[in-house]
Write a structure and sequence with these properties.
18 strands, 5-stranded parallel sheet, Phosphatase 2c, domain 1, single chain, 9 helices, Rossmann fold, alpha+beta
Length: about 400
């Protein structure tokens, strides 16, 4: 089996013949040409893997041939060796500066040239293998990117459609995944009797795995809500679901709430998640008083026996609820400081009347505080307004 195709270019027929003899005996296919023009004509018919060319030739010398080969995108990868009677380091540097890959001085030993050709073809094969692997890697990366984009689109489909509304309340969100797809999720669902159930969660990790678990969290929440009960029942059921369906190191923080507009009450469970803000009269806009809906509870998915506790707050017509994930407040600036809960609460103390405008203001002011540091974690912000 032939090892590869070599084009020998030299105006001296004996040199062409001796090189052809040794190369063919070593298993290479060989083309010959007496000058650069003949070499280009041969290359138009067959593309060699390697060109061995004399430097001084009539019609078109080796340096011009080298320039033509290396300047053409279709042939620039062909390995090019110059044969030259000019000896010395300066001559070698000059030959390589033409774009040649290597240089052999004349007079030469045929075995020396053959050894150089053998090592060159080992290099050529390595380069071909690298190109093949790069092509496969590029193709794989394209497939992964396409699948990531599809997964991101599917995840966006899990989020509530905007503008969103349930009995007595309307809501909006801003969702900013760190890597195109992330582990944050939220849901707002209508319950019987004019009540509303709501959930925001942050799954550990990033990427496809976190997104998959976030979809499980949303599905589990919706299933628990269908079973009835309140946030405490939902948290316990979701915890059992996640413990059963995920690995030990995977978990989710969550906040679960049940709004009863008839009684102006909000029952909720904090499962290791950022405590949301209730802004009293927030839908009026301007400077308003806020309170943090705190609570203690373990993260979901750690242990099926872990206890949770339910809390209750007033939630009056005109009030506003701000839910968020920790990616919004835990960006470390150059001075090592972070916005944290207190900083976000200051931003939320004076917002516009509209939920959409308020969400834009929160994201913009948070970015301004963090600048120049970007968000590095998934960010979800939900603003729910109680209709007056």
């Amino acid at each position: 089996m032939a090892k590869g195709l070599v084009l020998v270019v030299d105006d001296e027929a004996p040199i062409r013949d001796i090189l052809s003899f040794y190369l063919k005996r070593a298993g290479y296919r060989v083309l010959t040409a007496g000058n650069g023009l003949e070499a280009l004509a041969e290359m138009a018919r067959s593309r060699p893997d390697l060109i061995i060319s004399d430097l001084r030739m009539p019609e078109m010398p080796g340096d011009e041939l080298c320039k033509r080969v290396k300047s053409d995108p279709a042939t620039r990868d062909i390995y090019f060796i110059i044969l030259s009677a000019l000896d010395g380091t300066a001559s070698r540097i000059g030959g390589l500066s033409l774009g040649a890959d290597d240089m052999i001085p004349k007079p030469f030993h045929a075995q020396e040239v053959l050894a150089k050709v053998d090592s060159t073809f080992r290099l050529i094969e390595m380069q071909k293998e690298i190109k093949r692997q790069n092509k496969e890697l590029t193709s794989f990366q394209q497939r992964v990117q396409e699948e990531m984009e599809l997964a991101a689109a599917l995840q966006m489909g899990l989020l509530p459609k905007l503008p969103g509304e349930v009995t007595g309340a309307s809501y909006t969100h801003r969702y900013l995944p760190a890597a195109g797809i992330g582990g944050d999720i939220y849901a707002v669902v209508q319950l019987p009797g004019g009540c509303a159930g709501m959930m925001i969660a942050d799954v550990s990790g990033h990427g496809v795995t976190a997104a998959l678990i976030s979809a499980m969290v949303k599905t589990s929440f919706e299933n628990q809500v269908r079973l009835g009960g309140g946030p405490l029942d939902w948290a316990e059921g979701m915890n059992e679901d996640l413990c059963r369906s995920t690995l030990a190191e995977q978990f989710a923080t969550a906040w679960l709430g049940r709004l009863d507009p008839a009684n102006n009450r909000l029952r909720y469970v904090v499962a290791g998640h950022c405590a949301p803000f209730r802004i009293v009269g927030g839908t009026r806009g301007g400077l308003q008083r806020s309170e943090v809906l705190r609570g203690k509870g373990f993260m979901l998915g750690l242990d099926p026996q872990l206890p949770f506790s339910e809390h209750e707050s007033e939630f009056l017509p005109g009030d506003r609820l701000v839910l968020y994930t920790d990616g919004l407040v835990e960006v470390e600036r150059e001075d090592r400081s972070m916005l944290e809960e207190a900083g976000l609460r200051r931003i939320c103390a004076e917002l516009p009347a509209g939920a959409e405008e308020s969400a834009d203001v929160v994201i913009a002011q948070t970015r301004a505080f963090n600048s120049p540091a970007p968000f590095v974690d998934d960010v979800t912000l939900v603003i729910l307004d109680r209709m007056a």
